[in-house]
Design goal:
The complex is a heterodimer of chains A (233) and B (335).
Chain A (H helix, E strand, L loop, with lengths): L7 H13 L1 H32 L10 H16 L2 H7 L1 H8 L5 H25 L3 H9 L4 H12 L1 H21 L8 H11 L3 H29 L5
Helix pairs in contact in A: 1-11, 2-6, 2-9, 2-10, 3-6, 4-6, 5-6, 6-9, 7-8, 9-10, 9-11, 10-11
Chain B lengths: L1 E12 L2 E13 L4 E5 L6 H8 L7 E6 L2 E2 L5 H8 L2 E5 L10 H11 L4 H14 L15 H13 L5 E5 L7 H18 L2 E6 L2 H7 L2 E6 L2 E7 H6 L4 H7 L3 H8 L5 E7 L9 H8 L4 E10 L4 E9 L4 H9 L4 E6 L4
Parallel strand pairs in B: 3-8, 3-9, 6-7, 7-8
Antiparallel strand pairs in B: 1-2, 1-4, 4-5, 9-10, 11-13, 11-14, 12-13
Helix pairs in contact in B: 3-4, 3-5, 4-5
Classes of the chains: A mainly alpha (233), B alpha/beta (335).
Amino acid sequence: MYSGIFSAEALAEALECIKTEIPFAIWETFYVTIAATALAIIIGLPLGVLLVAGEKNGVAPLPSWVMTVLNVVINLLRSVPFLILMIMALPLSRLVVGTTVGTKATIVPLVVAAFPYIARLVESSIREIDPNIIEAAQSMGATPFQIIAKVMIPESVPSLINNGTIALTTILGYNAMAGILGGGGLGKIAINYGYYRYQYTTMYVAVILIVIMVIIFQTIGTKATIKCDKRLK
Amino acid sequence: MIKIEHLSKNFKVGNMDIEALNDINLEINDGDIYGIIGMSGAGKSTLVRCINMLERPTDGRIEVNGLDMGNLSDKELRAARRDITMIFQAFNLLKQRNCLKNVCFPMELDGVPKAEAEKKAKELLEIVGLPEKAKSYPAQLSGGQQQRIAIARALATNPKVLLCDEATSALDPKTTHQILKLLKEINQKMGITIVIITHQMSVVQEACNRVAILDGGRVVEEGNVSEVFSNPKSDAAKRLVMPDGERYQKWLGASSERRLRVVFQNVQNIEKPLVASMAVEAGVIATVLSADIQKLVGDKAGTMLLGVSDEQFDSAMKYLKTYEGITVKEVEDFV
């Protein structure tokens, strides 16, 4: 299948695609990834904080059945493979955005797949905080909400940015998979040209662009993590 | 005034009930620097956490400045905690905030306007001697400097009581001395009652006026530091006053000498060399088994353990009883 990927004909096809479809596909991939990550953070961050704060010995203990339900839901959503979860989320897409195909429609299953993942990442970030620091805040008369808003979250910002970057790159990968089920972006181009039309050269162009995007996101994320961590200076 | 009455605290570990504190009764007066000393596991950290209800007592009552701490609502307890602040062995500063913001933190919790809080925080940084570190982050500071910032933070809400949980245990002797000096200044200038939890006798001797000795979850001895120091009664107190004593006792066991413990009330006032004078004036030959000088809050005090043969014992006692500036008593063991 790799013979002739550098043939004049294949290169011409790829160049044509780069000129016509790729720029918009890059944009689609970019905005779907960012939008899905942002929405997943809005849902996942509070849940991740609750997973730690709501524990029996946490700063704001919740009834144990609430914690059980929360954990079961997160574990369930985390264990369904993304492609299958996407199909399962189709009715939800129709409900929220009115359609099951297209770029916008893929944001819904992406958020459903990503928020439990982000909740777990946030949980691990929050758990890294030294419990003595939380005790110190309690000794100063901080309310549970103040401990969450002024100690737990600000103290774990570097770790949250680091984990946020991991989530962002994972969602970018999910987004490429969404191309199979009618989602737009670079994933769709790779699948359409590579799988359906055997134009491997074009597929590689799309894949390389995805890799470059991952590298860019990761580099920015790592730099931001280091820059905002005041423990390293 | 802090009143601790019949305080007990049990922890459940699996099916076992571990008794951390057992019927503790203490009174700490306003303006005291009160030492609570004990070996690891004696329950001292639990005791100090019961004072501000970070640990809920299993039984007993704690009263701070007339407030029954166990019966406060969550809101009242948070308000009370602004009057009873705390510093820690690990400093526990917020690592993502600079020092000025760390000192502002308790005022921020209390809803003090930002400009006012920063002004107060700058004053407090002056008091602890680190005004130039306002914009530095905790990770850039040494241990002693971090503890100073923690002290400034603890003073931000104008507390009446400052609890120090092993606050100098992570510091070297010189830095420990500086931190204790700062705590004494704060006690004298601001009239804040200070409770110091420590396992180091030297800390109690240098800073405290009263002390309680905790052993196995009980208070085994309590009183003025100079009294407890010069005349320790309990085994735990003896171990703390003379940490090397048990080593002496091993080889003392073989000797037929009788032992005298001499306590010098004020080393500076003693003009005659004691052992030599006793040899010349009373003809008693004594061996110095151990000797030590410790600085107590008021003055310097020394202790000496002398070995005297059985036949010379009475003349030694007679001579030493008339010697000025010391007290003497026969001891069975090492203290």
